[in-house]
Amino acid sequence: MKILFLASEADPFVKVGGLGDVAGSLPYALRALGHDTRLVLPFHSNLNTSGLNMHRETVFTVPRNGSDEPVQVSHTEINGLPIYLISGEPISKTASVYSPIPHVDGEKYTFFSMAALELARRLEWAPDILHANDWHTAPAVYAMYLKKQNGDPLFAKTKSVLSIHNLGFMGAGSSEQLAAYGLPPVTDEALPAWARHMPLPLGLWAADELVAVSPTYAEEILTPDFGCDLDGFLRTRSATVTGIVNGIDYSLWDPSADDSITAKFNADHLDARAANKAALQKRFGLAIDPSIPLLAMVTRFDPQKGVDIALEALRHVNDLPWQAIFLGTGHANLEASARRLEADLPDRVCAVLRFDARLSREIYAGADIFLMPSRYEPCGLAQMIAMRYGALPLARAVGGLRDTIVHNQTGFLFAGASPHALSVSLRSALKKFPNAKTWRAMQRRAMAQDFSWARSAGQYVELFEALIK
Ligand code: ADP
After folding, report:
1. How does pLDDT run across 166-216, given as a tens digit for each residue?
2. How far is the centre of ligand 1, averaged over its atoms, from the C-alpha of 21 (Å)?
3. 15 Cα–ligand 1 center, Å
4. Is ligand 1 within 6 A of the CB of residue 356?
5. C-alpha 425: how far from its chain's center?
6. 67-78 and 81-87 strand pairing
7. Reduced to 3 states, what is the DSSP secondary structure of residue 3?
8. Is the peptide bond before 12 cis (omega within 30 degrees of 0)?
9. If you measure from the C-alpha of residue 464 to the centroid of ligand 1, how many angstroms do you get, rounded to a whole number?
10. What totals of helices (H) and strands (E) does the chain contain, helices first?
11. pLDDT value at position 456?
């Protein structure tokens, strides 16, 4: 199959969140399964292309409000995967992957989506599958639908798949930009009126198949609690909604070969792991004591992630021994709350408010319990990485967390999105911690789970094959 894979970010060029991990590994896994996959990314100003051989592939224009918007395309290859980077004024205008100004991103990603489709034409490469991800590339799905309606032969046989990594971000505030690139609102009343001119809903409406990034999230988005007011519409499309959990790249996340950590280890040599915990305790001025459970969170500081729930819950279990490290950045009020907890409990809590990939690895390798009290979690990668590194996740039973963690076997799950629910669950986990034998058995089970892309990519391939049959 020929698979055109579109995303706003991808490791190793640039990674803001989990989507960067996904787009930085799934295309390679699809290619490894024998499919001609090609990745197209915006050439953001902050893209890291060091060490890569870049060639100018082609230049062309896309129509915008009656004039022509110039597009330049560079080409490179990583491990045999062809990668096209799209440049143009709407992309070079901003310094970051995502802008806080809605119409700026609306312009950037509608331009990118249109240019990516036009690129396929320039390459004379008719894809079997157009695989878009989240709102940023959803306009490509809608645009291709319109092109097919208009009898465009290039896409006559192409099927579209839109992966939903986060339903909450829909690209609001870009309707003018959609219109400028020739993408009118739909009139179908199945979509709520407010959604008929928004990138993600248009993609959800036009795609041949929708993939939620976990089976539980696929069910949740059909309900009012998680459906972001599109649940009614999505229920009309439920026959085309599938759930496929994301994977992690096992070569990039491997505690037995990770040069960022103090001591490498594997499931058969868990003793070596202790040095990583001790190094963290030393570095952050915590008591260097293997018997004190070390809790950790590595996350965007966003209400979604329940950072506030965790900070509050820790105050409720102050009578038990534990230490905690928070690594993350984001909402100012959450950062301030983390600083307050650190100030109130300086011997126990450390808040590192930045993005630090290396430190995140040291934390996965040294923490005992990894907290993820998410309010919603489409898939979540951090819990998979934590398990791979022997840090047991303690997480809310939502979305992908529910699908990837087995309660009391590979981690701990709790139900409510409240400090009380988390503190009850944490108390029970902290009681188990001193029993080294049981704890180790759980760590080994967690480390033995298969969250590799090979499995998930296989599921995507099955879905694609069924679609084009
Ligand atoms: P999301 O995509 O919603 O942010 P995921 O759990 O799917 O959440 O993926 C988050 C990824 O970003 C993980 O690889 C995690 O380690 C990483 N990450 C998040 N915050 C930080 C940080 N402050 N420093 C380093 N890595 C981080």
Report:
1. 999 999 999 999 999 999 999 999 999 999 999 999 999 999 999 999 999
2. 9
3. 9
4. yes
5. 26
6. antiparallel
7. strand
8. yes
9. 28
10. 18, 15
11. 92
209 contacts 463 by C-beta, under 8 angstroms = yes
Ligand 1 mean position, distance from CA 433 (Å): 26
Q: Is the CB of 113 under 6 A from ligand 1?
A: no
Per-residue pLDDT tens over the stretch 103-135: 999 999 999 999 999 999 999 999 999 999 999
Q: CB of 401 closer than 6 A to ligand 1? A: no
What rounded mean pLDDT belongs to the chain?
Answer: 97
In the reported structure, the alpha carbon of residue 2 is separated from the centroid of ligand 1 by a whole-number distance in angstroms of: 30
DSSP 10: B
Are the beta carbons of 62 and 147 closer than 8 angstroms?
no
Model confidence, pTM: 0.94
* Pair of tokens at residue 172: 């609001």
Ligand 1 neighbourhood includes 380 CB (under 6 angstroms): yes
Ligand 1: residue of 305, 360, 384 to mutate (most ligand atoms within 8 A of CB) is 360
The DSSP element (H or E) to which 235 belongs, if any, is: helix 231-236
- What is the H or E stretch that residue 116 is in? helix 102-122
